[in-house]
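User: Can you fold this complex?
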Amino acid sequence: MVDLSPLPLQSNGSPSQQIVPKLSVHGLSKTFQYQSQPLTVLDNVDIELQANEFICLVGSSGCGKSTLLKIIAGLMSPSEGEVRVEGEAVEGPGSDRGMVFQSYSLFPWLTVAKNVEFGLKLQGMAKKERQERIAYYLDVVGLSRFANALPKQLSGGMKQRAAIARALANEPEVMLMDEPFGALDAQTKEQLQQFMQEIWERTHMTILMVTHDVEEAIFLSHRVYIMDAHPGRIRENLQIPLPEHRELEIKLTPEFLNLKRHITNQLGH
Amino acid sequence: MRRGIPTWLKILMPIVGIGLPLLLWSFLSYNGLVKDIFLPTPDKVITTGLELFREDDLIKDILASTGRVLGGFIAAALVAIPIGLLMGTFHSMEGLFSPFVSAVRYMPVAAFVPLIIIWAGIEEPAKILIVFMGIVLYNITMIVDGVKAIPDEVLNAAYTLGANRWVLLSKVIFPAALPSIINTLRVNIAGAWNFLVLAELLAASEGLGFRILRSQRYLQTDRVLFCILIIGVIGLTTDYALKRLGMVLTPWAEQGERQS
Ligand SMILES: Nc1ncnc2c1ncn2[C@@H]1O[C@H](COP(=O)(O)OP(=O)(O)O)[C@@H](O)[C@H]1O
Ligand SMILES: [Mg+2]
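Assistant: Here's the predicted assembly.
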């Protein structure tokens, strides 16, 4: 289960000692061979996420966001640089980094509950514990009634919630989300943004979410990385000084609109 | 274009589709527009057929042919499914097998028959081998395509949930490809019957293909037609059985993945 009690104090935590970030990316570059020409998609990217942070990374389409997430997830290797989870360099995919994709990622032959169970079985978890976890996370995403439904019986928004439950249930160190609401209609998208915020409030999961939707990024995150395109670089690391709990109406406040204007300017510079 | 049609039309269309050729056949044969030796009347074909069952032990031929087809078909499935899955999944395996598969696919099986006789003689193994060779490469190619059609996201999701390559192959790629595997087998069992007739050209003493060839020699067109019809009926039955199998094993598949 997710521990909702306050975080334990760092036992050896002297103030001068720096806390190891949950996720860090150092000097990461990626060059593809495109029509036998080298194409640099990511150039010297540095990113850090502390525990319990919800961070969004915004950038225009094609700037290398998915490539960056795939490298962090270990699904692709970088040309240069490294990825560390809790200070340990990682190579290759692992269940410490959960991932939610834009679409088509549920296993269509498994029910919602069995989809959630997939990673738990791989961890070798006992059946009783698996069932408790499945029940808990289906409740978190509001899909308890659909435990035995097949993915093809779900709407787009429900599919994404199921995929999120599956990633959460594994209780990874970091959740990576690649435009998880990008394929949904505007209304469902806003619902899921609120839903994502509730998820974070309940689990305090460390989340790195990629999006090209500026409003979504500001609404959800504590901090936003703004990315440049061609080659993909981190242009700015922007704190979002909004209250931790947000309602959708916040999107209409002057503070929010100022942030939006700033990011939009940065992206279109 | 792909909209559903009303029930009456659904029932009417197959009746027209089968009835019209039958009508044409009756028209041409009963009126004597085409000579009996080229096209006997439908009722003559049926009477001859019943006679074949009663007096000539046609059941034995049906069993012999069905056995050969099933033997070659099952062997081809057992070989093609693992190879197809591996080739579709790993570039190294594709590199290993694909030159051979692509090259041999273009060599007509009929041209191999003399070789098969040298290797395997002219008895049952040779006949099953011909059916096997006729379809195994098509099985492999189609299964590889099925595996490649699995969305990357599905495989990547499995990796990020902690799957290794073996788990990926057995718990993700195999079930994901199952609808297209069953579909492949359905398409290629029809091919198996084609190669059966070729196989029964070899010193057979029973079998539907053998009957057709012998009847042709004596100009018994009615027998030829009846045996062809029997093959058609068996074909339809196996097709239906595999379709049911698909619905039972992969009820989760979307309509489009399961061709009708
Ligand atoms: N495997 C690949 N080979 C060559 N180029 C690629 C590959 N994957 C992505 N790219 C290129 O890298 C760039 C960034 O892609 P991507 O990371 O998907 O962008 P984003 O997710 O920000 O839209 C694009 O120009 C794309 O064409
Ligand atoms: Mg992308």
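Chain B touches chain A through 22 residues (CB under 8 Å). Residues A 65-66, 178-179 surround magnesium ion (ligand 2) (CB under 6 Å).
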